[in-house]
Amino acid sequence: MLLSFLLPPAVQADEDGEVPAELRRQIEELNGRITALEERLDRLASRGGAPVALDGNGQVIGRLVDTTYAQRTISILTSQGYASLVASKTGRVTNSTAIWFDGPACQGNAYTRDDETPGTVWNNLDSGSSLWYVPRNAQYADAVALSRRPIGDAAIESCESIPLTVLLSVPTILPNNPAVTGFPDAGFIPRITIR
Question: What is the pTM assigned to this prediction?
Fold first, then answer.
């Protein structure tokens, strides 16, 4: 049984090691629902009809790629081919990364040191208001950083001067452009619905 491992610790098997009949029935019912959902998703995928994510105005943002219940996030792939994790309740982009610059005062070419995947959108502030993206055709190269913008915990962008830092095989990262990525400048998508 798929869900037999989900029995709460307080549920004890009887003396013969059997799970109580009512719990067994509930587990079988849940397994049936899971199987039905898996079959539905397989049918949708075979038709190229993955669920669609819509913003609060009913505009298509992109395709739903995955959901993470524990973190309450959804992964969206926009029609422009860019992906990111988004908080399902607030619509805030939750991928976060520090930004490294080859010039002083957070000027010049920008890089991400976290080996981010090309074609992804990232947030630099916990408020979700500073989006950056790694171009789909990003090339990895070595770079020297003189300053960085750490992941912020408020709506304030800060810049740190740092000792000369060599970054090995890192991609460039650019300020968000909604026409390129499909993600809005605000850093969140209001009232996400899935259809």
Answer: 0.67
